[in-house]
């Protein structure tokens, strides 16, 4: 079974245009992950600011 998968992977030809699309998709996916992480950090900062304002600090 694993030999079939390896053989199939070796037979795949990717055009330059397809590789460019794959690369763009990978960059965009990475950027989305970074932005989601940034949003989570900003939510924590916002929560801390609101907490301090509520405490009168």
From TrEMBL:
Domain of life where this protein originates: Eukaryota
GO molecular function: unfolded protein binding
Gene Ontology process terms (BP): protein folding
A GO CC term assigned to this protein in UniProt: cytoplasm
InterPro entries: PFDN4
Signal peptide: none
Keywords: Chaperone
Keyword rRNA-binding on entry: no
PANTHER family listed in its UniProt record: PREFOLDIN SUBUNIT 4
Protein name as catalogued: Prefoldin subunit 4
Source organism (scientific name): Lynx pardinus (Iberian lynx)
Lineage: Eukaryota, Metazoa, Chordata, Craniata, Vertebrata
């Amino acid at each position: 079974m694993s030999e079939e998968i390896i053989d199939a992977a070796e037979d795949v030809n990717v055009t330059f245009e397809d590789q460019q699309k794959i690369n763009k998709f990978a960059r965009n996916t990475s950027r989305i992950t970074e932005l989601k992480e940034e949003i989570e950090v900003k939510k924590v900062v916002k929560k801390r600011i609101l907490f301090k304002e509520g405490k009168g600090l």
